[in-house]
Amino acid sequence: MVEKLAQRFVKIYIMGKEYEVPEGITIMKAVEYAGYQYIRGAGCRGGFCGACATIYRLKGDYRLYTALACQTTVKDGMYLVQIPFSPAEKVRYNIEELKPTGSTVLALYPEIARCVACNACTKACPQELQVMDAIQMIKRGDLSKAAELCFDCISCGLCSIRCPAEIIHYHVFQLVRRLYGKYIAPKAKHLDIRVKEVIEGKFDEELNKLIKMSPAELKKLYDSREIESPEG
Amino acid sequence: MSQKIGYPDYMRDLIKIVEETRDRRLKERYRRLSPDEKNELLKTWHPDYKEGTKRPLKIGPSAGLMVPHEVADLIEAYPLVEPNDIDLSKVDYDVDLLVIGGGGAGTSAAIWANIEGIPSENILIATKLRFGDANTKMAQGGIQAADRPNDSPAIHFIDIMGGGQYTNDPELVMELVKDAPFIIKWLEDLGVMFDKEPDGTMIELSGGGTSRNRMHAAKDYTGLEIMRVLMDEALNRGIRVLEFTPAIELLTDDFGNRITGAVLWNMETKEYYVVRSKAVILATGGYGRLHIQNYPTTNHYGATMDGVVLAYRVGAKLRDLDATQYHPTGAAYPDQILGLLITEKVRSMGAQLVNIDGEQFVYPLETRDAVSAAIIRECYGRDKGVKTPTGVRGVWLDTPMVDMIRGEGATKRYLSSVYRMYARFGIDVTKEPILVFPTLHYMNGGVCINKYAQVLGCNGVIEGFFAAGETTGGVHGKNRLMGNSLLEVTVYGRRAGISAAKYIKSGVGFGKLTLNHVIRFKQELEKLGVPRSRRSPMLLPEYRGEKVLSKAIPIFPI
């Protein structure tokens, strides 16, 4: 199961220094191959945490590209640097005291009003989210749509680094999603019923019996249990 | 930006075989394994049963416990620092509660300690990477709770015990299933965006080995969604977090049966900090990055089992570390994402596992240990796997079935992370199947605790010491079910926080700070003749290139 590396090599430039690394590996593995040990800049290594935000340029191409180092293959001539941290203050609030409206978000993060709809955030997003649209939805007061649009955000911060209005998108989005999840999304009524039943001790007798059973007795129950169809 | 890798021609030809059998398979329900068949399959093909991969621990409170060599090498190892080199008379942080680990369990614990009356300024979370960098964030498929009318905590209990081969601690399981609906409710109240029907009913799917559909999810970013909400809540409460500052040793009082703090190490400045605390909660997670038996892993960069190492030195008992969970469906192609998690939810939503002939070979929602063993058998026992250009073997996970069964758009809507990960490499999972092979996923065992999340040593509870999450053992026995790890971190994280708060409020003062337990442990290591070069905790895995390491010289002293 040891990963086999390709035999061909490409040249990359890590913060300007040239290294030869095997073709076809991710930026993250290439940086390690070159001899760097991550302390910052590596987290989940699977595209979920945003720790490995990277910016790069390619030879003969003026554009600045963004990527997650763990999800992007190295290219020959890549000039790259990782941005493992983006400075941003998270506003403190008590979610219990907030109203789920656009003005709540605007009051806590007033800079969203400065959005000029340039779309730099959307272009920078390695998750390919409609970042600018989400900000615009908040300004319109449509938190449901905004929460949906920003759900797959992994807080890498690349949008915020690019934003001329200096919006801290990922903190704004966190607030929006919590407001939606807590106040706007319909409540699960069956959950309340079950929580109450547990508190009232409805299952205690059966469970107290079960925890005293021998493995053989439990096995009998397990092997003969009725299984609901996955389709419901 | 799509990197347009896609499949090579020969794999495309093999995919045609999968397509040819798909219509027939849509109607085909593969037979479940009988209990005897499952037993035989595990014994023959599960990596846990492979000879020569384990050895018994020779020292400490769980001497005799069989563990993988990789685990034993870290447990039977010298400390990173000589106890005498640390000046314990200068305390850097005086707090009521130190939480070691900033993942799902640690963060839940800190929040609940605060709810139970410990002021946030008296709580300190120390974490090795960033706050929230943990396996919790990477959990995709869901979180279990028996909250539908046709389900009950008792049925959930039976599923867990059977899945764990009846080796679980029944009392820990009982508390888990009883707390589960409350925990979902708590998370809903915090603002977690669960997948719901328009009337608010939770959309719940099945998972491997579950007899009811009780998997609550937030698309396939369930863990990320829960983790970021917990982090936000902890920060709103003003709980302090020290990032890139792992614990490298626990501190005990003179007698060694009470935990009184910890030694932390700032990985960036290389200085150590002495923390004096009335209680310590250990929530450091599992061991995927040990790459047991050379398997790739789904785990985050810091999953190096540090907590188990530290807890063992202070006398905590360990259990079930001989049982490693290999998730059946790690990515086997392309190489760039080798071993990364393809959530079980793909199978919950209808995708089947098929071999090179386009035929099913196992019911897709058997327990994880069984599905993994069946895939290994298919590839290495029956030679019915597919080989990638770099020689990795795998079987097909027929992802296009998801939209065919659940309706067009279901994949993009509910499996957006899987869709995205493959799209990045030029593969559209709604049109083409993906190649998978088991990957190291979860540490089933760990530190022994009771239902109050108190850590247990040879003489019962170790005072002032609590633990929760993957670092502990007992809840899952020898095999965890999908959706019970997110549940465990929140249920037992909460329990640890409440228990620690109660302990602190009972009026305990600070204890004396010593490393006497480390000195004693060292003496045992010397008697055993453990090589001096073997040191732990590991903190970070070593992935630097061999060429570089062979020529590296440490000019700057560490």
Structural description of this entry:
The complex is a heterodimer of chains A (232) and B (558). By secondary structure, chain A is α+β, with helices and mostly antiparallel strands. Chain A has ten helices and five strands; from the N terminus they run ββαβββααααααααα. Chain A has three domains: 9-82, Ubiquitin-like (UB roll) (Roll), CATH 3.10.20; 95-184, Alpha-helical ferredoxin (Fumarate Reductase Iron-sulfur Protein, Chain B, domain 2, Orthogonal Bundle); 190-221, no CATH class. Chain A has helices at residues 27-33, 102-108, 120-124, 131-140, 143-149, 158-162, 169-184, 189-199, 204-210, 215-223, and strands spanning 9-14, 17-22, 53-57, 65-68, 78-82. In chain A, strands 2-1-5-3-4 form a five-stranded mixed sheet, covered by helices on one side. The longest helix of chain A is centred in the C-terminal third of the chain and has 16 residues, at 169-184. Chain A starts with 8 loop residues before the first strand and ends in a 9-residue tail after the last helix. The relative contact order of chain A is 0.11. By secondary structure, chain B is an alpha/beta fold. Chain B has helices at residues 9-26, 35-45, 69-75, 104-115, 135-138, 153-163, 170-190, 222-236, 306-313, 345-348, 368-381, 400-406, 410-414, 416-423, 485-505, 516-528, 546-551; strands at 54-56, 66-68, 78-79, 93-100, 123-126, 143-144, 204-205, 215-216, 240-242, 247-252, 259-265, 272-282, 318-319, 324-331, 353-354, 386-387, 393-397, 434-443, 446-448, 454-457, 460-467, 472-473, 535-536. In chain B, helix 2 (35-45) crosses helix 11 (368-381), helix 4 (104-115) runs parallel beside helix 8 (222-236) and helix 4 runs parallel beside helix 15. The longest helix of chain B is centred in the N-terminal third of the chain and has 21 residues, at 170-190. Chain B is globular and about 70 Å long.
